[in-house]
Design a protein that fits this description.
With about 625 residues, the chain is α/β, with parallel strands linked by helices. About 45% of the residues lie in helices and about 20% in strands. The longest helix is centred in the C-terminal third of the chain and has 38 residues.
């Protein structure tokens, strides 16, 4: 059955006044129109994602919604008494002595001051730190704590997952899902948007379209809209041809009618020209091709029982890993787990404390640095590409004019002398890719390449990596991108332990869950057969208390009850209309499901621990 989507070109009367309503918003920057009649409405509890290409005006529209930017024309309505908090892409923490002072400054009278400390603790940022000493990731976490602490009516979040590691992103998803606040989200993280959004606004060529469905439905809907535009353009072209035919071969005596129809034809031609120009802008893409290097040897790198520590901190512990030509490997782990250290050892740039590393032959490595600040902010775009003082650069062993190469990455000729400091985050990301891909390689190491890139550019990057003949090592917090690109993933298991899993990030979760279930099932089976569990962590011997014995008897029934409860909650959430029909019931169900899953995991771990202790005591008696 075909899906029918509601498009915002037809104005709808909301059942109740929205908390926030932007109408007919126009804004011009430097003589060029950025917003041309954009509209946006957000109701209480709404979960809206704002989608658009880099430079389309998403962040500007969010700033208009927050009151930081005044439009040239249009109306911004905010219900009286509504509280709004805005998270910018680059938060400013200057002027505060401590991180806690910065976060508390965002609280309003009556807000809970303890929530600021709680959120900083959850996000792993010390309240006493000097804001000027924070890394990019720490600053982003502090800014998130500042906007989340008041629990406002509306949260406006611009790329909230940038610089966050995977545990922090997953925590943020749960935290935002538990809030009653209405949300407007800008993000390149598909999984994040799909999890949290219930409606989507597409900002394209200055105008907005909206569907009352989450991001997971957006891309198919967008493609359908663009196809319909092509059909309309074709129909318009045929109408123009018919009019021209009539003008050439029609009855010449009807001159007055001819004049009128000639005027109509000129109008059609103008409309056609605008449509062609508009469609061309909509379909502009990055030409992304990696320069090919020589073919490397079959073996790229092999690590055997490699360990590395810094003082008492174990980064890598007895890790063995083999990387062959053509492999596509992801590396994931929380910030500080040692991803950079591991990569340096794989690349042969860092000696291990113990173990051996063997590198392959004919390696031509390309490394993309995630730190945009590695570019000199005063260097022009042209000099950043050519090295300075030239108009030509080598791309894949061939000479190309810098302006032509700039156009491949959607830079216009006028930007050639633009300092890097004036480029947007997305533009700096494209510049870094342009610089890196110009160099021949057969081993590509990409460290967080998805930061600040729009969804279309991410699609093209994915295609380029799929066509890349060499070997790929990808460090990323973008779960969807990992799932689309890598064939295996090396994940941090904590305390210096690393494990390679087949597939992407979603496959890691499935395999980890399977291992845990297998351990519980094996322990239960062993208990029935009188055998000790096969998977047992080391623990101090102790006696079973009366409370322990009671738990051993009652926990199996409790686990069955919790599993039934989980199944019931999932069945309720399978109703696709529940979120919009009864948001409060939806949220209570989500919270209850999360609590039940947590309780089941704790019950299984507790039962397994007690069962192992019981078997150990029986073996010793």
């Amino acid at each position: 059955m075909a899906c029918v989507f509601a498009i915002s070109t037809v104005k709808r009367r909301p059942m109740s006044p929205p908390l926030l309503h932007l109408q007919d918003i126009h804004l011009t920057f430097g003589g060029a129109g950025l917003l041309d009649g954009a509209e946006l409405a957000l109701g209480a509890g709404g979960r809206l994602c704002l989608i658009g290409r880099n430079g389309s005006g998403k962040s500007t529209l969010l700033k208009i919604a927050s009151g930081q930017v005044e439009p040239d024309k249009g109306t911004v309505f905010l219900q009286p008494g509504t509280t709004v908090r805005y998270l910018p892409q680059e938060p400013d923490l200057s002027g505060f002595k401590t991180v806690l002072e910065y976060v508390e400054d965002g609280l309003a009278p009556g807000d809970d001051p303890h929530r600021a400390v709680y959120l900083l603790g959850q996000l792993g940022v010390s309240p006493d730190l000097d804001p000027s000493t924070l890394s990019g990731g720490e600053a982003r976490r502090a800014a998130l704590a500042r906007v989340l602490a008041p629990e406002p009516d509306i949260l406006l979040l611009d790329e909230p997952t940038n610089h966050l590691d995977l545990p922090a992103i997953e925590w943020l998803e749960r935290e935002l899902a538990s809030l009653r606040s209405a949300l407007i989200l800008i993000s390149h993280d598909r999984r994040f948007l799909s999890t949290l959004s219930s409606s989507t606004v597409w900002l394209d060529r200055g105008r907005t379209r909206q569907i009352d469905r989450g991001f997971s439905h957006f891309e198919s809907w967008r493609d359908k809209v663009l196809e319909e535009e092509e059909v309309e353009a074709h129909k318009l072209g045929r109408k123009i041809a018919m009019e021209e035919h009539w003008l050439r071969y029609g009855v010449t005596a009807r001159r007055k009618r001819n004049v009128r129809r000639l005027g109509n034809l000129q109008s059609l031609r103008a409309e056609r020209a605008e449509r062609i120009s508009s469609n061309a802008r909509a379909r502009e893409t990055v030409t992304m091709v990696a320069a090919k290097g020589d073919v490397s040897g079959k073996l790229v790198a092999e690590l055997k029982d490699v360990s590395k520590s810094y003082g008492a901190n174990s980064i890598v512990k007895e890790f063995s890993f083999k990387l062959n030509r053509g492999d596509r490997v992801g590396i994931v782990g929380p910030n500080g787990a040692g991803k950079t250290t591991l990569i340096k050892m794989i690349m042969g740039a860092l000696e291990p404390d113990s173990g051996t590393i063997r590198l392959g032959t004919k390696l031509q490595a390309l490394t993309l640095d995630q730190r945009r600040e590695s570019l000199d902010p005063e260097t022009t775009l042209k000099d950043a590409l050519t090295g300075g003082g030239r108009d030509m650069l080598h791309v894949g062993g061939q000479q190309r004019h810098v302006i032509a190469y700039m156009k491949d990455f959607l830079f216009i000729p006028e930007q050639a002398r633009t300092p890097v400091s004036r480029l947007s985050g997305g533009e700096r990301g494209r510049l870094m890719l342009a610089r890196a891909l110009a160099r021949p390689s057969n081993l590509m190491v990409l460290d967080e390449p998805t930061n600040d890139l729009d969804l279309e550019t991410l699609d093209l990057l994915q295609e380029m990596l799929s066509d890349y003949d060499g070997t790929l090592i990808l460090v990323s917090h973008d779960r969807d991108f990992l799932d689309r690109v890598v064939a295996s993933t090396v994940a941090s298991e904590g305390d210096g332990h690393w494990q390679e899993y087949a597939g992407g990030y979603s496959d890691i979760l499935i395999q980890r869950k399977g291992v845990k279930k297998a351990a519980v099932a094996e322990a239960k089976k062993g208990a029935k057969l009188g055998k000790p569990p096969t998977l047992a962590p080391t623990q101090q011997k102790r006696k079973l208390t009366f409370k322990d014995k009671h738990a051993l008897e009652t926990l199996p029934r409790e686990m069955e009850r919790l599993q039934s409860e989980i199944d019931a909650h999932k069945s309720t959430l399978a109703d696709a209309e529940l979120f919009t029909r009864d948001h409060e019931h939806f949220q209570k169900t989500v919270d209850a499901l999360s609590a039940a899953e947590t309780a089941l995991a704790e019950a299984e771990e507790r039962w397994l621990e007690l069962e192992m202790l019981r078997e150990e005591m029986e073996a010793c008696s």
